[in-house]
Specification:
The chain is an alpha+beta fold. It has 11 helices and 42 strands. The chain has a domain of about 290 residues: Alpha/Beta hydrolase fold, catalytic domain (Rossmann fold). It has an 8-stranded mixed beta sheet with strand order 35-36-38-37-39-40-41-42, with helices on both faces. The longest helix has 18 residues. The protein is globular, with a radius of gyration of 26 Å. The termini are far apart. It holds the Pfam family Peptidase_S9_N. InterPro entries: AB_hydrolase_fold, Pept_S9_AS, Pept_S9A_N, Peptidase_S9_cat, Peptidase_S9A, Prolyl_oligopep/macrocyclase.
């Protein structure tokens, strides 16, 4: 492969902040990235793709490129004088006991716990008044902590359990079945499971989903025909029965199967994209029962929450953009027979059940409100939550008299509460002991106008007493897609950032789900620019109101949020000092050719749809919009070499374009985590290193030669 790009010698002279000495210049010699003559033609328009070869994740050339890029990046990061201090502080603050909400299965109560710096949470259980014992320790799955627990499912009586593991962060899973009482493995490991839960049918077996293993790289090759299988205990996986997805008429990209709590019905959800699903039902008590359609199109999102006999309770946004709950008889389940149970309101609904009640969780400007209903649809009460934030976990078994929920917000570490179902009262069950005082920080919600006048909410969190003088280091974080809602939650990494005087701002952009389907649809396909405009307007609001200034602003996002950062920094490189795109979708002309990427077309459209859609995607696709001679912000691209959700080639190609075309002295680096995927299951040790590098890079490129708040480091100096 002919190498025709000369090595670039960049002197990273970063502008200093007032009264601060300039950071030491770091000389960056970027690796040579070869260019090849690759051209695609879309509707008569030619598009060059010189870094196409980086899409081959199995080639020696790509492997060598990754090693050289990491050598360059870590060589730069090692020169940041306070990088080790950040890592030490992160480790200290991270080192506290963390406890998940307990849940009952059979005679045991189970819970997840991390002692502090364990790479993976451990599953414990208790029985009666006996001391807790380890049920499952994922830290023993691999020496480096990169094999994680990716799912755990029990039979109704709690006697059997099946769990999923992910190796190196991959979406491909393996399943292991245990005798829950003895913790002994009862049969051979199942392999090649993907995008799947495990749903038991009694104690006989369970349903799961997967794709045929693709030809070529299993990390990047296209997978688009999902299939549901039934595994009967005591049989070989090769004999598992194909339930749905094996014929052309049943071809869908995402198919899930789940069994109702009483084991009476099998439900199958089938989707061609990440929005909208068909829904089918089968009576498991009828040996000759067939799959009957409840919903035969993909125009809405539908889920059977629960049933009482043949009466089904369905959460849906069909003719209800903010969602509602309806009921229908399973014998005649078509949508025309649905009856409203909990009607749609002006706020977005998500629902669960437990203890003989339904719990409706409404988002009100991205903050939780919980209402309890009985099975006749009567409102029992609004649950008075501990504060403004995010409540989760309202649900359990029907016979439960109590269950546990958690509460958190941006400056409050998650605590667990025990809820009395009948009385509607709760008590604090567990509160973390952490070296961070929430009372020292404040969160405020503001509403600002986007380019077209739409009001966008944003929560801004920072230390009390912070002077709004335009000189505060600020991270603006967002997502803006796939109906995903960003609700307040505590992050140890963000706590360290705010401890250093940093501001953390999160706007709820269009494309998300905070205001229902209409809000989502306002940021898809040829309306995607709304999302970028919302993000740009958030940055401008922070600057205009002197929370920060261009010199102290960093933008950050991951996955679809990585696309957000990539598009924003290429459209408005003058707006921020630092850009931090993580595992981003950067090549919008080719995203649909990798793994399950074609399923994202509801949000994005594809370059193959028509000329209009191609031109629109080409107009904002980060890889295609890096311009020669433009001064881009200091950029640290991050990805994982085993990411089979958003393949790392997106980030590779974007980094190569930036390194070739960057004008000026700002560094454009890529940090590639090895033996890591899209993010889920990442070991704590790796996560801490990532935060230290990201925050170190950010502050250094804002002009800091030492940490703004060194007092928190006194423990390391003594």
């Amino acid at each position: 492969m002919k190498k025709i790009i000369p090595a670039l010698l960049v002197l990273a002279l970063i502008s200093s902040c007032k009264n601060e000495p300039k950071p030491e210049p770091i000389i960056v010699k970027y690796p040579v990235t070869a260019k090849v003559d690759t051209v695609d033609t879309y509707f008569g328009t030619e598009v060059k793709d010189p870094y196409r070869w980086l899409e081959d994740d199995r080639s020696p050339e790509t492997e060598a490129w990754v090693k050289e890029q990491n050598k360059t990046t870590f060589g730069y990061l090692e020169h940041i004088p306070f990088r080790t201090d950040l890592k030490n502080r992160l480790e200290k603050l991270w080192n506290y006991e963390k406890l998940g909400s307990p849940f009952k299965k059979g005679d045991y109560t189970y819970f997840y716990k991390n002692d502090g710096l364990q790479n993976q949470y451990v599953v414990y259980r208790t029985k009666g008044d006996a001391a807790a014992e380890v049920f499952l320790d994922p830290n023993t799955f691999s020496e480096d902590g990169t094999t994680s627990l990716a799912g755990l499912s029990f039979t109704k009586d709690g006697s059997l359990a099946a769990y999923l593991i992910s190796e190196g962060g991959s979406d491909w899973r393996k399943a292991i079945i245990l005798n829950a009482e003895t913790k002994e493995v009862v049969e051979d490991t199942l392999i090649d499971i993907k995008f799947s839960g495990l749903s038991w049918k009694g104690k006989e077996g369970f349903y799961y989903s997967s794709y045929d293993k693709p030809k070529g790289s299993e990390l990047s090759a296209k997978t688009d025909q999902h299939k549901v299988y039934y595994h009967k205990l005591g049989t070989s996986q090769k004999d598992d029965k194909l339930i749905f997805g094996g014929t052309p008429s049943e071809k869908h990209r995402y198919i899930g199967a789940y069994v109702t709590e009483d084991n009476k019905y099998l439900l199958i959800s089938a989707s061609v994209s990440t929005s909208g699903n068909k829904l089918f039902i089968k009576d498991l008590e009828d040996p000759n029962g067939l799959l009957i359609p409840l919903v035969e199109d993909t125009d809405s999102d539908n889920y059977v929450i629960d049933n009482v006999g043949s009466k089904l309770y369905i959460e849906t946004n069909r003719n209800a953009p903010n969602k509602k709950i309806v009921t229908v008889d399973a014998k005649n389940p078509e949508a025309k027979n649905w009856v409203d149970f909990i009607p749609e309101t002006e706020n977005v609904l998500s629902a669960d059940f437990g203890g003989g009640y339904f719990f409706a969780d409404y988002m009100v400007d991205a903050v939780s409100k919980i209402f309890q209903y009985d099975y006749n649809g009567k409102l029992i009460r609004e649950v008075n939550l501990p504060g403004l934030g995010t409540a989760s976990g309202f649900g359990g078994e029907k016979e439960d008299k109590e269950f546990y929920f958690s509460f958190t917000n941006y400056n409050t570490p998650g605590s667990t509460y025990k809820y009395d179902v009948e009385l509607g009262t709760y008590e604090l069950y567990w509160k973390p002991e952490i070296d961070f005082n929430p009372a020292d920080y404040t969160s405020e919600q503001v509403f600002y106008a986007s380019k077209d006048g739409t009001k966008i909410p944003m929560i801004i969190t920072y230390k009390k007493g912070t002077e709004l003088n335009g000189k505060n280091p600020t991270i603006l974080y967002a997502y803006g897609g796939f109906n995903v809602s960003l609700t307040p939650s505590f992050s140890i990494g963000n706590a360290v950032w705010m401890e250093q005087g940093g501001i953390y701002a999160v706007p709820n952009l269009r494309g998300g789900g905070e205001y229902g389907k209409k809000w989502h649809d306002a940021g898809i396909k040829t309306k995607k620019q709304n999302v970028f405009d919302d993000f740009i307007a958030a940055a401008e609001y922070l600057v205009e109101n002197k929370y920060t200034s261009k010199e102290y602003l960093a933008i950050r996002g991951g996955s679809n949020g990585g696309l957000l950062v990539g598009a924003t920094m290429t459209q408005r490189p003058d707006l921020m000092q630092v850009a931090l795109p993580a595992v981003g979708v950067m090549d919008m002309l080719r995203y649909h050719t990798f793994t399950a990427g074609a399923g994202w077309a509801y949000d994005y459209g594809t370059a193959e749809d028509n000329d209009e859609m191609f031109q629109y995607l080409k107009g904002y696709s980060p890889v295609q919009n890096v311009k020669t001679g433009t001064a881009y912000p200091a950029t640290l691209v991050t990805t994982g070499d085993h990411d089979d959700r958003v393949v790392p080639a997106h980030s590779f190609k974007f980094a190569a374009e930036l390194q070739e075309k960057q004008e000026g002295t700002n560094p454009t680096l890529i940090r590639i985590e090895t033996n890591a995927g899209h993010g889920a299951g990442t070991p704590v040790s790796k996560t801490i290193e990532q935060y230290a590098d990201i925050f170190g890079f950010t502050l250094y490129n804002m002009g800091y030669t030492e940490l703004p708040n060194k007092s928190v480091l006194k423990d390391f100096k003594e």
